[in-house]
Amino acid sequence: MLALLIFTVGLLHAHAVSMMNSTGTVNEEGVCQCSVILPDNTFPADRLEVLEVSSRELSTSVHQEIIKIQNYQATLTEYIFKLKNLTRRVEIIELGGISYTELDFELLKIEIREMESLVVKLKQSFNGSSTLVESLFVEIHNIAAMVNQLESYDKNNVLAVRREIASLRKKLEDCKKNQDIPTLPPVSYGTCNHGGLKNISKPFVVQLNWLGFTYKFGGWGKDTLVGAGQDLHWMSPLSTDARIMNIIRSYPTYEDLLLYKRPSDMVLSKTLPRNNIDYTSCGQGGGMILFNNSMYYNCYNTRDICKYNLNTGTVERKTLTDATFNNRFSYSSSLWQDIDLASDEDGLWVIYSTEENSGNIVIGKLNPITLSMEKTWVTTQYKPAVTNAFMICGVLYATRTLSTRQEEIFYMYDTKTNKDLKTSIVFDKMMENVQSVNYNPNDHKLYMYNDGYLVTYDLSFKPKENLS
């Protein structure tokens, strides 16, 4: 087509030239001369071709942009629909609509009512009384009360409650299968009328420490003196460097702890002139324990044991001879806990290591008044291979990590027989690292500080005849 156009234009151009008039002259030699002026009408065919290619490319580009705009329009339409739907959901929530958490609690209540009905049937199926069934009945009532508490105070613990309910359901099923098996008499609190630790319950998360997630190290619990009042709960998060124990916070009741109400703070450091800080009365590590309304702990930057009276605020201290300190032989999952205080039915203990014993655990019986050492026992268990330890009826129980969600009590030392034993009691944990574990003889519970969370465990014991 382009060639035909050029050819036609050429013919027209030639015809125009032939039609033009011209004038001429004769030179001296008789030769005729003439001049012809041609118009400059040369057609730019190459430029027209470039223009045609550019036009095609522009047309393709415009078509692609139109497709993109259509896609954007479809996407915008979809997002407008989602936004309207989200707006409706937010309006429902603002108007008091049912949330997923509330539905979860309703399901929990239904499950509890079903278990209550099953327990009633079990009680009727027994000819006489059953201690196990009665205990289950009490536990179900306790879990019901706990659900009501959590619904009011702490709705983030739904999963923990579900674990408790799953454990109770399993107990009910086991009870139904083994109705003819005699149950063991309950162990009296504060006594050693049993054959040693048998099992550990699922963890129960009570609360996150009031300072938050970043304060992963510390300790908590109740007074461990046998017969002491059990209303007051204490916690002591360490500084974020996992070392300094500078504050002890107490709550007068369990409900106050759940709501962070009516706290009482005791600050151990003192401010000196020129903004210097005196850490003399502070502690280090998570080895603290409350015994007879006094907090016992490893004094900061020393091998001393400090005793802080909660009533008077006075501090007494005594050097623990030969004990290593300042992270020389701490536990594997918690720093600065070279000296760990413990308590049980027999009184106050200290768990530590010495250079002479090459880092193996030494158990010391402490006089709670004078802080003097009454007797020591040297074990064969290397302390840095242990995640934590506690005492029950004069027996040391040491733990180690199996996984991010399980611990194992793997070692025991009986101070009455001077024998160490290997054992295996596996229990779950909420978070990966165990920072401190305290046993309380007044309720047979373990109080664990677990990556900033306050966690409890219920303990069960063997009958006394199985002491060996």
Concise overview:
With 468 residues, the chain is α+β, with helices and mostly antiparallel strands. The chain is built from 6 helices and 27 strands.
Structure, described:
The chain is α+β, with helices and mostly antiparallel strands. It folds into 2 domains: 78 residues; 270 residues, 6 Propeller (Neuraminidase), CATH 2.120.10. Helix 3 runs antiparallel to helix 4 and helix 3 packs parallel to helix 5. The longest helix is centred in the first third of the chain and has 50 residues. It is elongated and about 150 Å long. The chain starts with a helix and ends in a 7-residue tail after the last strand. It is found in: Secreted. One of its GO terms (cellular component) is extracellular space. This is Olfactomedin-like domain-containing protein. It comes from Pyxicephalus adspersus.
Tell me the major beta sheet.
5 strands, antiparallel
- Quote the CATH topology of the largest domain: Neuraminidase
Structural domain count: 2
Strand content: 25-35%
Helical region count? 6
The CA-CA distance between the termini, in Å, is 111 Å
Helix content: 25-40%
- Quickly give the structural class: alpha+beta
The level 1 CATH classification of the largest domain is Mainly Beta
Mean pLDDT: 82
What is the radius of gyration computed over CA atoms, rounded to a whole number of angstroms? 42 Å
What is the architecture of the largest domain at the second tier of CATH? 6 Propeller
Shape field: elongated
* Total strand segments: 27
Q: What ranges have pLDDT less than 50 throughout 5 or more consecutive residues? A: 1-20
Signal peptide: 1-16
Main location: secreted
Pfam families: OLF
InterPro entries: Olfac-like_dom, Olfactomedin-like_domain, Quinoprot_gluc/sorb_DH_b-prop
